[in-house]
Amino acid sequence: RRYHNNLGYAYGMIERYPDALREFLQGGTEAAAFNNLGFSYQAGGDLNQARDLYRRALEIDPGLKTARQNLAALCRSRTSEDGACVLQDGNGTNPTEAP
User: Fold this and answer.
1) Cβ atoms within 10 Å, residue 43
2) How many CB atoms lie within 10 A of CB 82?
């Protein structure tokens, strides 16, 4: 499992995102894979894609704490004026609050 996740992050660092997703899917759940891919996009500076992937992870598994934390951290790091990040997940709850 760790091997696939590490390889997925390595692919993400060189922007081979389809390969990264494939490895993340082999290394864990579908929700965790989208969370990990979101983290890779965030590390590469594509914050909108990262946000969308964290949200997708939460749609699949609303209880995935790491996706909730990653989305909350991303939203806190962005200005409210850009309108691109809303502090709500698909369940209408604030991702910064404990479930």
Assistant:
1) 12
2) 9
Residues 6+ away with beta carbon under 8 Å from 16: none
> How is residue 98 annotated by DSSP?
-
DSSP per residue over 57-85, as a string? HHHH-TT-HHHHHHHHHHHHHS-GGG---
Mean pLDDT of the chain: 84
Segment 49-73, tens digit of pLDDT: 999 999 999 999 999 999 999 999 9
- Phi and psi angles of residue 98, each rounded to the nearest 5 degrees, phi first: -70, 140
Q: Read off the pTM.
A: 0.79
| Cα(99)–Cα(97) distance, integer angstroms | 6
Name the nearest CA neighbour of 91 among 54, 59, 43: 59
pLDDT bucket at 89, cuts 50 / 70 / 90: very low
